[in-house]
Write the structure tokens for this entry.
Amino acid sequence: MEEKQFTYDVSMFRKTFESEFTYINGFIRNTHRYANRPALTCPLRNKTWTYAELNKDVNRFANALLHDGVGKNDVIMYQLPNSAEFVFCYLAPQKIGAINSPINFRLSAGETASIINDSKPAIFVYDAEYKETAIQGLSMANHQPRRVIMVDMSKEAALPEGHAAFDAYVQNQSDREPVVEGTPHVYDEVTRLYTSGTTGRPKGVPLNNVNEVLSAHDVAMHFPLNPHDKTMNMSPWFHRGGIHSGGPNPTLYMGGEVVILRNFEPKKCLEYVSEYGITFLIGVPSILKMLYHAQQKKHYDLSRLKGIVTMGSPLEKEDCIKFQETLTPNIFNGYGTSEAFWNTFLRPYDLPEMAGSAGRSCTDDDVAVVKVYSDRKAEPDDFAAKDGSEVGEVIVKAPGKSAYAYVNKPEESEKVFYKGWIYIGDMATWDENEYITIVGRKDDMIVSSGENIHPVQVEEVLNTHPKVSESVVVGVPDKLRGESVVAYIVKSDDSLTADELHKFCLENPMLADYKCPRFYQFIDELPYTATGKKKHYLMKEQAKRDQEKGLLKR
């Protein structure tokens, strides 16, 4: 194909842009222009790193990785809570051309093993608090990382044989910039996140340098965020909304300060807001409800709080008003995906009027609702009516924040990414002003406390119980969690009890605790379509009726 003829010499721009427009360069700029400004604060350690100090610790880890033979495109996988070591693991691989990959520390051992096998990390880092899950997951995995490293903030956990302690691993390493061969590229994968598909199987979401930079820019526009801000994301950073929505990614790119919240406790969180002068809090609506109740009991100083950003589930109007009156008038709500970050946004001037909707498309994105067909995708311009009534599928276009692919899953990529759009499987309506209102999920996914739970995965585990003939899993409304998981079971043995099933799920290595059903109901048969597919929507309706009648028992 003949190269396009430009009106000017593009060679220097192309060379500079393609090698210099990287996320890590943005962080490095801050290490000298804001060298003595605070970058990272850990209240548990009572320690603050300046940008210069943080850079030195990142360099020690980067040089340790190089010394260990880590090179271009090697994966550094880490199963860590919000912590300083999480930040080191996020930044250091980017300095040497490797790929950082945070994974959910709440996963079961079997799920952890599945992800290890998928990405084949050279280095695996875990926190001592989750040691047993990590050890079991590693033992179940076919792939074995070259090095396994344990982070132990308490300094009290026994180090498993063959594992390295993080502090010892970086000891005596140079704090200077690592020396690497080769030239970085804007399309290089630098971060790999994991989500789940409609069957619950993990999918690797690659993010390149452009994605990381423009995700940071997106937050800077929408909060807006500046170098004097102090952010505290109350949700785990391993999520796209955790690392990118006011987490390490945008805050360290802009030159602000990240305050670490390792575990969410409403009172402790509000104490930190008051003590450290937090300007932006980020978390799911269920967390905000707990903050609201804690603030009512004891009035903490929230005067420096510029805004609270919610995500993960719709924000109800009544709750929005309560939050605005009690916490801050500036409430924001974002809606999106792991594949493309947030894609619609509600700003304070949209609320509380438009609470309950997902908002309109973000500045650099397009969002549409298209018709749904049983045998094919709708074309991107085959719109559902903008009448707030017709239900269709949400599709998004986020050219700056998505790599439009999954790792190792070409068939899944083909299903989801089409003509520059992402078919994310949510069902919604939209109105003449293009406000999107989510009404359900095409794949029946359950969202509980901000975590995605796929019924098929839970059903697969339930069906392995010898006394279970069939099962169907659905969600019911839960004021605290958003949704709770309900399992409807057809017994193959009349002696089966709910307690027996619950114990079975909790002990199953292929199911994380938060995915275990909260309610169990026994029925004679499940509803199926003519083609043999379970009618989840009918069981969802029955579960809601059973809930209203008080029939759901734990």
